[in-house]
Amino acid sequence: MKLSFDLPKKVFQFYYEGFTTLSWWGKKMWIIIILKLFIMFAILKVFFFPDVLKKNFDTDKERSEYVIDQLINLPDNHD
């Protein structure tokens, strides 16, 4: 089996033709899906998932030591 270098072009054409032949309902649904993904990954991440390691530690070494410590050491209470 020989891989051709025009595979990415064929994949792009496949999806492009599929999206251009969608009905108005299908296009509206894709717009809603893309908006929801943007809200989930861009807006919610900024407000609800702050970068705790960057905020609490100054260097990459401190961050890595903290993560390793949390992965290796078990908490004192085993409830």
Write up this protein.
- With 79 residues, the protein is mainly alpha-helical.
- It is 72% helix and 0% strand.
- It is built from four helices and no strands.
- The chain has helices at 7-20, 24-48, 52-56, 60-72.
- The radius of gyration is 23 Å and the shape is elongated.
- The model has no long low-confidence stretch (mean pLDDT 86).
Secondary structure layout plus pairing:
Layout: H1 7-20, H2 24-48, H3 52-56, H4 60-72
**Chain oligomer state:** single chain
Radius of gyration: 23 Å
Question: Could you give a short account of the major beta sheet?
Answer: none
Question: Using DSSP, what is the number of strands?
Answer: 0
From the spread of the alpha carbons, the general shape counts as elongated
- pLDDT below 50 for ≥5 consecutive residues: which ranges? none
User: What is the typical, i.e. mean, pLDDT?
Assistant: 86
Structural class: mainly alpha
What brief labels describe this structure?
79 residues; mainly alpha
Could you give a short description of this structure?
Helix content is 72%, strand content 0%.
